[in-house]
Amino acid sequence: MQKGEMYVGWSTKDDVRKRGGSGGLVTSMLAAALEKKLVDAAVVLKKINEFEAVPIITSDINEVLNSAGSLHSVPSNFAKLIANKNLKVALPAKGCDVRGIIEQGKRNAIALDNTFIIGLNCGGSMHPVVTREMLEVMYKIKPEDVHGEEIEKGKLIFETKDGKEHAITIDELEEKGYGRRESCRYCTIKIPNNADIACGNWGVTGDLVGKATFVEINSEKGAKLLQNAIDAGYVQVQKTDEKGVAMRTKIKGVMEDLGKKWKAKLFVPIDNGRLEYFRKELENCIDCGACKAVCPTCSCGDVSKCTEYHSRGDAYKMSMYHLVRFLHLADSCIGCGQCSDVCPVDIPLTRLYRRFANPVQEQLKYEPGMDMRKPPYFEVKLND
Amino acid sequence: MSSEAVTAQPAPKGNGWEPKIVAFCCNWCSYGGADSAGMGRFQQPASARIIRVMCSGRIDPLHVFNAFLEGADAVLVTGCHIGDCHYVNGNDKTKIKYKYIENVARELGLEKERLQLNWISASEGEKFANFIRDVTEQIKKIGPSPLKPEGVA
């Protein structure tokens, strides 16, 4: 097994295969890595209900096996969770999680050599609070009655406990302001080729649809992880067919085009009153610092430029905290949307940060979290 | 404060109003340039407040933002010509930092005249004086900075 190869695989454990999304391959790889002592711990989401889950770092194989099953409405943020802990760890991660982990790696908060990242294809995740509201307003069902969820052919389907299925197209939901989180709509990293191994159900064909996972190996660590799972008897794989690979590329293309369309729609340049726009959006800021605490590219800790040069007594027109954050995120923002999610006064922070980040990252041709390139800010000289 | 003072219009453009310009100068070149502008008796408006730094590479974006937030109408970043830096490559770093500051300032809606970068050597007194004069003229035309706090002239 080596870099660049693609397989279709599934779990050999019947229970995991049934409960897990797409054949439970990811869960089994994590469990196998723990059993064969490839890693000391794994990160999984411990499900509380359909809308809530807590991320845990665990060494217990049963806990990993129990975590099987996907949750679309729980956006994870694993980069900050494993930062500064010096763990030998394997974890599943969406595209933005992977980017966060790599950014933390660049800032020496995570040892990337000891981190096995299983990338998951991601078309977008949903905010749990918004999802609950959406269920009541759009689907007219009680959130407590939801038994399962699924995305199929552009439709978001919820299954209630009485066995009925409720389906509405995602386009319609997003027009009304529900559906995927805003940052997911304009995200263009759908297949995480920056992770060690990229997994997802796109490209699975024939009888295996819904029962297997498409795997692309992106690094030697990824090959080691999959080989280990096969050797341990947790996973079975077979070669992919050309049809599957073509289908996967096609879905990726469609999703990326959709992302670009959203990006163009959302980031229309403001001709007049830019300062007023930013002041208006930030006027409710209560200075809690949650956006910084959760930001997967920030690794300054408690004492940092954005907090130390900012005082609540300042009578400035823009707070120094936000100016420094704007500057920092101009090259480092990965657009994960965590800041908007946690903001207690609902400031659309990701949208604001992206306004600064889009032109800078385009100019410098720098994509944070996609490779190990140093942020251009710390470069001595730029090659123009 | 009377209600009149609160609703008072911003300082009139042109006559009477002098812009406040913060000029960051590096110790080895542009500060020397400012010095030789004085020694050569080149006339320049009294609008610039010079802040001397050892190298233009020391100018943190934070300094520039702070100048604007405290009421500067324009901020000038000046240093040695590329290749002449006393610290070998300090001004290369300035160039990178400036790119960032410029982008943030532009996105915030500050006009491009308000933030300028210029390389001035110690012998270019006339260039320094002309630069200050030009910037003062430009700022007089576009008026006070939108980031100026309330009550600061």
Largest interface: A-B, 32 and 26 residues
Distance between the termini of chain A: 39 Å
CATH fold type of the largest domain in chain A: Aspartate Aminotransferase, domain 2
CATH superfamily of chain B: Lumazine/riboflavin synthase
| Domain tally of chain B | 1
Q: What would you call the shape of chain A?
A: globular
Secondary-structure content class of chain B: alpha/beta
Instruction: Summarize model confidence as the mean pLDDT of chain A.
Output: 88
Helical content of chain A, roughly?
25-40%
The count of DSSP E runs of length 2 or more, i.e. the number of strands of chain A, is 11
- Poorly predicted runs of 5 or more residues of chain B: 1-8
Q: Tell me the series of helices and strands of chain B, N- to C-terminal.
A: HEHEHEHEH
- Oligomer state equals heterodimer
Number of strands of chain B: 4
What's the number of structural domains of chain A?
A: 3
Distance between the termini of chain B: 15 Å
Radius of gyration of chain A: 21 Å
Computed over alpha carbons, the radius of gyration of chain B is 16 Å
Strands ordered across the widest β-sheet of chain B: 2-1-3-4
Rough shape of chain B?
globular
Written description of the protein model:
The complex is a heterodimer of chains A (384) and B (153). By secondary structure, chain A is α/β, with parallel strands linked by helices. Helices cover 39% and strands 17% of the residues of chain A. Chain A has helices spanning 14-19, 25-35, 61-66, 78-82, 95-106, 128-139, 170-175, 182-185, 220-231, 242-266, 274-282, 290-294, 305-308, 320-332, 338-342, 349-363; strands spanning 6-11, 41-49, 52-58, 89-94, 115-120, 146-152, 155-160, 165-169, 197-200, 213-217, 235-239. In chain A, strands 3-2-4-5-9-10-1-11 form an 8-stranded mixed sheet. In chain A, strand 2 (41-49) and strand 3 form a beta hairpin. The longest helix of chain A has 25 residues, at 242-266. Chain A is globular and about 65 Å long. Chain B has one domain (18-140): Lumazine/riboflavin synthase (Rossmann fold, 3-Layer(aba) Sandwich), CATH 3.40.50. In chain B, helix 2 crosses helix 5. Chain B has a 4-stranded parallel sheet with strand order 2-1-3-4, with helices on both faces. Chain B has helices at 3-7, 30-39, 61-70, 90-107, 125-142, and strands at residues 21-26, 48-53, 74-79, 115-119. In chain B, strand 1, helix 2 (30-39) and strand 2 form a beta-alpha-beta unit. Classes of the chains: A alpha/beta (384), B alpha/beta (153). The A-B interface holds A 270, 273-276, 278, 305, 309, 314-318, 320, 323-324, 326-327, 330-331, 355-356, 359-360, 363-364, 376-377, 379-382 and B 61-62, 65-66, 69-70, 89, 92-93, 95-97, 99-101, 103-104, 107-110, 146-150.
